[in-house]
Write a structure and sequence with these properties.
Blueprint lengths: L16 E3 L2 E3 L6 E2 L1 H5 L17 E4 L3 E2 L6 E2 L4 E2 L3 E2 L6 E5 L3 E5 L4 E4 L2
Antiparallel strand pairs: 1-2, 2-3, 4-7, 4-11, 5-6, 8-9, 9-10
Length: 112
């Protein structure tokens, strides 16, 4: 067995193992697809453009904010994003709203 498995993307544990068609972590219980780990940490916007830390994006549709009556309007420009792992893969500060996590599928990269 010369194949080495990638570390857990959640807790960075080196003790990952194969469980059927998924990879699993015994320390945090996270399961993920091996294809997802092969893709690396590439995060793409709704149009397929590769995103990077510090990019400027625009929200493509009105987004309801869970736990609030506020809505982030489509067309809102967000500057200086930070990419993180997880379901909401963009951390940013939305003007008029504050710090929030966004999903990359609801933003589009724009040039400054």
């Amino acid at each position: 067995m010369t194949e080495t498995l990638p570390p857990c993307p959640e807790c960075r544990s080196a003790y990952t193992y194969e469980a059927d068609s998924l990879l699993a972590c015994p320390e945090c219980g996270h399961e993920w697809s091996p294809a997802a780990s092969d893709a690396g940490s590439e995060i793409r916007d709704s149009a397929g453009n590769l995103l990077a830390d510090g990019d400027t994006v625009t929200v493509i549709k009105d987004l309801k904010v869970k736990g609030s009556s506020s809505v982030i309007k489509g067309g809102t420009k967000v500057r200086g994003i930070r990419l993180v792992g997880g379901d909401h893969d963009i951390d940013c500060k939305v003007p008029g709203f504050g710090q929030i996590g966004l999903k990359s599928q609801f933003v589009k990269k724009v040039s400054d």
